[in-house]
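Here is a complete protein record:
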Amino acid sequence: MIAQILNDEFLLGAAEDTRLELKRFVEQRERRETVAEGPLSLVDDEQIREVIEELDRAVLAHEARVTESKDAWICMPREPILAILQSELTRVASDQRPAAIVEGAGITRARIADDPGERTDGGRRAFGKYEVTRPKILSDPRWLWSGVVIAWNKFKKKADFGGLAGHAVSIADDARVLLVGDWGSGIERAQAVAAQMRLVLEQGMAEGREQHVIHLGDVYYTGAREEYENNFLRYWPVKEGEGIGSYALCGNHDMYQGGHAYYATALADPRFARQEHKSVFMLRSSVWQLLGLDTSYKDKRLFGGQAAWIEEQLQAAPGSRTALLSHHQPWSAYEDAGKELRSEVKDILASGRIDAWFWGHEHRCLVYEPRENVKLSSCVGHGGIPEYLVAAEGKPYPPGLRYDYRRKHGHGIEPWNTFGFAVLELDGYDLNVKYIAEDGGQPHHEEELRHGV
């Protein structure tokens, strides 16, 4: 990740720049003017017009919604076309001007040398409005514009749904399972999380412990092939041939280029072979089953008969305890979210058969009081994206929340969250959960689900 490309004003300016240049290109072709040969020459005008219109809509929606000053420094837009633009800006900068990307201070440790992006006296914003958006970083901006169009059409033409697991991966009754969410940024602090996960795995190998590692989704910005290679697979804490199971849920950012690289790059890696190219999978011991769901192929919903599939797994293992794993949250103390997902599994929740639920999406570490008959539920989305802390340590928790990891990272002015992951320890019918921070500290006591509880 590059500091300038995470800047809100820079991104919106680049979006306007791209929109205007694409519009000019189409108008030139409509007037039958001669246009230079290049990557846009093979793109249909209608595809380009769709991107122009989508950029216009996205910028208006983003500007109407964003009021928090954090977006000046860590803009993670909800609009897929803007995330695609971030991916393409990063790709072209890395391809065309790699020498200009230098190490710097701040959350990303990388910046474009031509644009220092220093803090102004008046606030956090790194740039004046649109002042560095003309493509200084590009040797041929048509590669950026064509990349945005091509990536948008990948988003519109999704990969085929991977389907439902037909059988469970058998795991030991005392297996250890590591969970990390929203980790695929590749920034230095996300690498620190991977290093801490590696220490846990090495300890388990020394003990002869069976272990598995699950990513709860989101490789940034848009789940492009290069992003899986550079931000995700490069730093994944499991090494090939170690016998440690690796699994990856599909997040909304993984679908921002249609999920093509999620299947073709991430799940094609030999370390993820046990997942068998399925976005829905299950791990099962003699008493526990962990069901990995896909809530992103259809955003924030279950696609492809997953609700019925959950019912089938409950019927197939009537005496087992069950934990659900998803990218999106079924409920939230801080956002109005989860209604659609809950509605699809309301009968399952009402049955009381779901013992635990873990998810990501929100870049927080949260533990909830029992809710909807689920005894233990937790957001573990603090793996790799800096997020402003909503509340300071010591402030009362919102209703229904048992724990909120509010430790500030570092000593700077900005109240960034501290990253981390969760370790699930199976012990027969019991489940112990501990949370480990990016510096190796254990911020929260173990959560426990005991036999008969």
